[in-house]
Amino acid sequence: MNRLSNGILDFANMAVCSGLLVSTYDAIPEVKNETQNVCSVTCKDSGGDSGSGPRTIAFVCCDGGGDSNTNDDISLVDSGYASFPMFVFLKTEVNRSVSIRKAAIELFASIFDQLSVLKDQIDINRPLIVTGRSLGGSVASLFTLWLLDTIYLKTSKTPLCLTFGSPLLGDNALQRAISERPTWISCFLHVISNQDQVPRFLARGHMPFGATLFISESGCACFEDPQSILELIEATSLAKLEGSQFIDYGSMLKRLKYKAIRQGKIEEADACDISDPVKCGITLQLLAIEAIKPENIDTSPLILSIRRNIERFRKGKKNNSDQTKKLNEVKVYMACMGWYKKQSKNQGGYYDCYKTAESKSKDQGQTKEDLVIYQKKLNKYWEKTVKDVDRMPKREGATSIRPRVLYAGTNYRRMVEPLDIAVYYREGNTDYINKGRSQHYKLLEEWEKSSSKPAERHKVSSTTEDSCFWAHVEEALIACRNLTEENDTSTEDKESWNKSLFRFEAYVMSLIRMHTLSPETFQEGSSFMKWWEKYKTLRGISYKSDLTGFMNNKKVQNDLLVLDEYKILS
Ligand SMILES: *[C@@H]1O[C@H](CO)[C@@H](O)[C@H](O)[C@H]1NC(C)=O
Ligand SMILES: *[C@@H]1O[C@H](CO)[C@@H](O)[C@H](O)[C@H]1NC(C)=O
Ligand SMILES: *[C@@H]1O[C@H](CO)[C@@H](O)[C@H](O)[C@H]1NC(C)=O
Ligand SMILES: *[C@@H]1O[C@H](CO)[C@@H](O)[C@H](O)[C@H]1NC(C)=O
Ligand SMILES: *[C@@H]1O[C@H](CO)[C@@H](O)[C@H](O)[C@H]1NC(C)=O
Ligand SMILES: *[C@@H]1O[C@H](CO)[C@@H](O)[C@H](O)[C@H]1NC(C)=O
């Protein structure tokens, strides 16, 4: 038997054998009053007073009347649910409507004060298990999501949420919102017995998230991909059982544990074709949870369907690790660009060197063709990265971009956007900021500005901080040209160009004062100096301003530039 294909089965047995499931289930108090529309929460610490063992928070909830099949209870409400807008953070840009089961949100809301107190007492350095059965498990999931978005937001630690026989919590959009955060999705393990009707009442319109461990009297199997879980929930549904029969997960798990230890492996191993280990593995799992019967192995469409789901799901996952590999390539491209930038310093500066460079100049080691390739690859990588981050669940005003990614993104923006601007104006376009700027640059800049810890004014690459600086220079050049051309233009137009030039002057001065303009800006022949020559002529000899003061005083200028260079080195 191929071990790889059996990995999931092994995990399921391991989960059952570890005893964690049984001890967690035992921490859930018995339901006291089935008929009341109530939810209670208890807290149990193991490991004695030393407080070293895990803390278990357990939810017991009943949603009134025991008839959990009314339309009202199974209805989904928007996560921004008007009277209790607790879960708006789950909305994403791609899908603004995330729906959560109404009964679960209402129960959560009913004990919210108690939960707030409990949340404040949680020590994130201590392992935490959040659990519940039936609807209690749904509230446990909501509580876990809330913790993930608050106290666990800035750590790599996570709680573990174990639910038993819980109805599905929300729709496809909820599943996607959670799955887009790998650390979030890995917090959830749902246990579902093939004898339990509760998780099956509501399968339609809902979508599971996290891993699900299916158990039956004969075995267990664990699945991760939502589509397979949904199909299995439907497939393992027994013929209508009477009402809400109480399933004792504790004893079922104990029997399974005993069985798994005693037998080691499932017996039916010889029941399938070992020349196709993947199919064989899936068949064994489906047999174990009684989703198919031994006599249906050859005819059940479920095996093929689950296989397709799993393969699609794995492919999606593989793409994530491709992203990591790409990040390393991206670092190399950035290094090459940095090197080009250094070389171009005395050849008209980074911007103008790129804008005017002869295609074939080889003397710099990096030809311009190389640079164009790096520029394209970097743009492609960051466009995708920014899009992915933007789709992540987010709270108002807060982005979910990690500080390290934002730091790399800011470096990229300052390094590559000037080149995009150079291409844009070289091709004769105008008004880059309003008409040419790509959305991903805008978002990167926005995030950098709103991040609580603004990226330090790192000057390692001596890149001008405003990545749009050169677009402003180009526009100022055009305004100068507009003003000097002898056309029949209205005085209003002239005035507006005139004003925009004063604004540009003030903008340049502010950058100079903040030491955020790189020295090569002032090099002979740069676009900025071309503008300055034109501008000087336009204003005339008698014109005096802060900028003329700065530009005409070599000493002030040198002081500033030397200071700048010094800062680059230190
Ligand atoms: C359960 O709650 C209902 C409604 O509050 C109450 O009438 C009933 O007496 C309770 N039953 C028990 C056993 O506490
Ligand atoms: C958003 O979610 C709803 C509900 O699951 C779904 O019908 C809709 O197609 C989704 N929209 C997108 C753009 O994914
Ligand atoms: C994985 O990435 C490739 C190329 O980057 C893409 O064509 C494919 O659709 C992606 N697969 C999934 C499942 O997202
Ligand atoms: C220059 O003049 C053209 C034509 O009137 C106008 O469309 C453009 O906005 C002006 N550009 C600047 C930077 O003032
Ligand atoms: C001035 O006229 C020339 C030639 O017709 C034209 O190319 C240019 O855009 C005009 N400039 C302005 C500011 O309108
Ligand atoms: C620009 O504005 C200044 C101050 O308002 C004025 O002195 C100057 O004549 C104007 N120049 C042009 C070309 O309109």
UniProtKB/TrEMBL annotation:
GO terms for cellular component: cytoplasm; nucleus. Pfam families: EDS1_EP (PF18117), Lipase_3 (PF01764). Coiled coil: none annotated. Residues 98-202 form the Fungal lipase-type domain. Residues 337-548 form the EDS1 EP domain. The keyword Nucleus applies. It comes from the Eukaryota. GO terms for biological process: defense response; lipid metabolic process. Gene3D superfamilies: alpha/beta hydrolase. The keyword rRNA-binding does not apply. SUPFAM superfamilies: alpha/beta-Hydrolases. Keywords: Cytoplasm, Hydrolase, Nucleus, Plant defense. It is found in: Cytoplasm; Nucleus. GO terms for molecular function: carboxylic ester hydrolase activity. Its main location: cytoplasm. InterPro entries: AB_hydrolase_fold (IPR029058), EDS1_EP (IPR041266), Fungal_lipase-type (IPR002921), SAG101-like (IPR044603). This is Fungal lipase-like domain-containing protein. It comes from Apium graveolens.
